[in-house]
Design a protein that fits this description.
Layout: H1 2-27, E1 34-43, H2 47-70, H3 73-78, H4 84-90, E2 91-101, E3 105-114, H5 116-126, E4 138-139, E5 144-146, E6 149-151, H6 158-165, E7 175-176
Parallel strand pairs: 4-7
Antiparallel strand pairs: 1-3, 2-3, 5-6
Length: 183
């Protein structure tokens, strides 16, 4: 028995490792096609009905956010979003990051990952020009000079306050603003 384990045990581990390594690149997801923080709040006749309606709305809102990321302002002005079934077919997977419900209300926060090839095909078939080239994150250090006083992390820095309120996670050029709590 130990001889069989020695022969097949090592082979099994090698096969599992090879399988894992071949799947990992295929499972890698382009963050450009990931939309996080989609919040929905729906009231319906029941919690189950509200949840179903909320999920459809979340998918539509996520695709709208994706279109906003990939399309120019001119393309976005004439863009007609696809129907719910078409959007659903372009979703690779989703993650529910927060959920609350009552007997008639559903609130949730979702992350959607779209199939890049299906989204590209959709825009190409519609003749919609899009960009799918993203940038590395840009680090912003919001220095503010007020007379002879230079401010970076203090609460009275209007640039820090403005940049902290800005949401750029859905942009082609993500912006990172440090919170300044390192000591």
């Amino acid at each position: 028995m130990s001889g069989i384990y020695k022969v097949f045990g090592g082979t099994s581990i090698a096969l599992l490792a090879a399988l894992w390594l071949s799947i990992a690149p295929a499972a890698a997801q382009d963050p450009l096609y990931t939309i996080e923080g989609i919040k929905v709040d729906i009231t319906a006749a029941s919690a189950a009905a509200a949840r179903e309606e909320a999920f459809i709305k979340a998918e539509q809102d996520a695709f709208a956010a994706l279109a906003q990321r990939l399309l120019s302002e001119a393309e976005l002005a004439t863009f007609v979003p696809p129907d719910a079934d078409t959007i659903s077919n372009m979703v690779q997977d989703f993650e529910l990051t927060e959920e609350r419900l009552s007997t008639v209300r559903y609130m949730g926060t979702y992350t959607f990952r779209f199939k890049d090839s299906d989204v590209q095909k959709f825009f190409s078939v519609k003749g919609t020009a899009y960009t799918d080239v993203s940038s590395r994150p840009v680090l912003v250090l919001p220095f503010y000079q007020w007379g002879s006083r230079m401010v970076l992390w203090e609460g009275d820095n209007p640039w820090l306050n403005a940049w902290s309120r800005t949401t750029t996670q859905r942009a082609l050029v993500p912006v990172a603003v440090p919170i300044g709590d390192a000591q």
